[in-house]
Design a protein that fits this description.
Strand content: 15-25%
Bound molecules: iron/sulfur cluster
Shape: globular
Number of strands: 18
Helix content: 25-40%
Distance between the termini: 52 Å
Length: 437
C-alpha cells in the first residue's frame, strides 16, 4: 500500500507526521512523495486557530476533488479536537483519526484501503523519514500543556503535560546524531515546564545531552517566560553546542491583559528576564511572539506593548491576531477588539520590528561563524547560523566556489546582510573559533 502525507500545522505536528510515516512503514506500507501514486492520502491537520482549521478542511476537500477514488484520512489536531462532528460532516474524508494514539494509524490505514498488511517489522522507534531540511530534526520532549492560557485550545487537543524520560530523549538524540543529524531542535508546547511533577528537568536534560561526544547544535523552541529555567544558562554559557537562542513567547507586556490571558509577568519582569539572559550569555538571540486584539486590549495596553518592544529590542518577533476559539475561557470574554484594529496593531508591531531585527543581525557582520548548510540553489547555498531558527527567521546565503555538503556544518565569515538574510563566505580551514563567547 502506498501512502502520501500532507503535514500541516506546527513542528510538533510535524513530529507526529514523521511518526505516522514510521508506523506505516513498519507495517509494510510505502511512503510516496507524490499523491498521484498513492492509494491513501493522509492530511495531518492543525486545529489551533480558525485559519488553520479552515486550511485543513480545504486541503481534504481539495484532495477529494483531485482524487475522487483515493482513500483519505484526516489525522492531527483538528481531527482530535472535533472527531465526532467531522466524522458526521466531513464526508470527503473516509476516516477521522485523532492524535492521541499514533500507533493506531496502521490498523486504520489498512482497513480503510483494504490493502494486505506487509510483513510487520518491529514498530519503528526511530522516525525513518525526517521532514526537516538536511541536518536538522525536531525532538518532541513532552506532550500537552498545563498552563491553560485563556486563549489557547491546545490543552483541549493535546491534554495535560506529559514529559518523556531523559533517557528516552537522549537515546533518540544519539540515534539521530548517528544518522548525520547536526541540529537537534527540542520542542514541546512549553519546554520550560518539561519534567514538571517528575524528577526530570530541562537543565537535567541539557546536561545529559552535553555528555554526548559529538559535534551538534541543540536549539530550544517555546520557553514559557513565567517559569524560565535559569539553570539552563550555565550549560549554554559553557558548552557552545547549546545555542544561545531563546524562543520565549511573551504574548503581551501589559500586566492586566496577561492576567486575563491566565499568564503572569509583565513588561518589567520580562525586561528583567531578557537582561539576565543577555548578562549570562552576551550574544543571546531572543525570539518572541505577540498576540494582538485579545478581548479588553486598550490603547494603553497596546502602548505598553510598543514600549516593551522598543526596550526589549528582540532579534526576531512574530505577531498573531487573537482568534476567538470555542471551548476556551477567552471565547466569552467581553470588550472584544475588532479584527480591523487587531490587524492594524499587528502591522504596526511588525513595521517597528523590521529595523530592530536588521540592526540586531548587523552585529554578526565581519564575524567568523559556523553555519548549517541546508540547500543548494543555482550558484549558492542556503543555510542557517545559530541565530536563525528553521522556517521562521531569516536565512543565510553561502557563496561558495567549492561544493558543500548538505546537512553539514561549514565555517566562514559573515560578509553582509540583505533584509533579514545574512551572507557568508566559507573559510573552512582557518581555525574556526565560535564567535559569540
Ligand atoms: S503555554 Fe502555549 S500551548 Fe500552553 S496553553 Fe499557553 S499558549 Fe497554549
Amino acid at each position: 500500500m502506498k501512502f502520501y502525507i500532507e503535514p500541516l500545522g506546527c513542528v510538533k505536528n510535524q513530529v507526529d507526521a514523521e511518526t505516522i510515516i514510521s508506523n506505516l512503514n513498519a507495517a509494510g506500507a510505502e511512503l510516496s512523495e507524490n499523491p498521484d501514486e498513492a492509494d491513501l492520502v493522509i492530511v495531518n491537520s492543525c486545529g489551533f486557530i480558525e485559519e488553520a482549521k479552515q486550511e485543513s478542511i480545504n486541503t481534504v476537500i481539495g484532495f477529494r476533488r483531485d482524487y475522487p477514488d483515493k482513500k483519505i484520512i484526516l489525522s492531527g489536531c483538528l481531527a482530535q479536537r472535533y472527531q465526532e462532528e467531522l466524522r458526521r460532516e466531513l464526508i470527503e474524508a473516509d476516516a477521522v483519526f485523532g492524535n492521541s494514539r499514533l500507533d493506531d494509524i496502521t490498523a486504520l490505514a489498512f482497513s480503510v484501503t483494504g490493502a494486505e498488511r506487509g510483513i510487520s517489522r518491529r514498530a519503528e522507534t526511530e522516525r525513518i523519514k525526517l521532514l526537516s531540511l538536511p541536518g536538522s530534526a525536531y525532538v518532541k520532549i513532552a506532550e500537552g500543556c498545563d498552563n491553560r492560557c485563556s486563549f489557547c485550545a491546545i490543552p483541549l487537543i493535546r491534554g495535560g503535560l506529559v514529559s518523556r524520560s531523559i533517557d528516552d530523549i537522549v537515546s533518540e538524540c544519539r540515534g539521530l546524531l548517528k544518522r548525520g543529524v547536526r541540529e537537534l531542535c527540542l520542542v514541546a508546547q512549553d519546554l520550560a515546564s518539561y519534567g514538571a511533577g517528575t524528577s526530570e528537568s530541562l537543565p537535567g536534560l541539557l546536561s545529559a545531552l552535553s555528555a554526548l561526544d559529538s559535534d551538534f547544535w541543540v536549539r530550544l523552541l517555546y520557553l514559557h517566560p513565567d517559569h524560565f529555567p535559569f539553570k539552563i544558562l550555565e550549560t549554554i554559557a559553557s558548552d557552545k553546542r547549546f545555542l544561545p537562542y531563546f524562543d520565549i513567547p511573551f504574548q503581551h507586556a501589559s500586566p492586566s491583559l496577561l492576567r486575563a490571558m491566565n499568564r503572569r509577568g509583565g513588561a518589567e519582569e520580562y525586561l528583567d528576564l531578557i537582561a539576565r539572559i543577555r548578562a549570562a550569555v552576551p550574544d543571546s538571540v531572543i525570539r518572541s511572539t505577540f498576540l494582538t486584539g485579545f478581548p479588553g486590549e486598550t490603547y494603553t495596553d497596546f502602548d505598553i506593548l510598543l514600549d516593551f518592544q522598543d526596550a526589549a529590542r528582540m532579534d526576531w518577533l512574530g505577531v498573531f491576531v487573537f482568534s476567538r476559539e470555542d471551548g476556551v475561557p477567552a471565547y466569552s470574554f467581553k470588550n472584544r477588539v475588532s479584527k480591523k484594529t487587531a490587524r492594524e496593531r499587528k502591522t504596526i508591531l511588525e513595521t517597528r520590528q523590521t529595523p530592530i531585527t536588521e540592526t540586531r543581525m548587523d552585529r554578526f557582520i565581519g564575524r567568523r561563524m559556523r553555519a548549517l548548510v541546508e540547500e543548494k540553489l543555482d550558484a549558492f547555498y542556503l543555510g542557517r547560523l545559530f541565530c536563525q531558527a528553521p522556517e521562521v527567521d531569516g536565512a543565510l546565503v553561502i557563496e561558495s566556489a567549492h561544493p558543500l555538503q548538505l546537512g553539514a556544518f561549514v565555517d566562514g565569515i559573515i560578509t553582509g546582510r540583505a533584509g533579514f538574510d545574512l551572507r557568508m563566505l566559507p573559510a573552512p580551514t582557518s581555525g574556526f573559533t565560535y564567535a559569540p563567547r
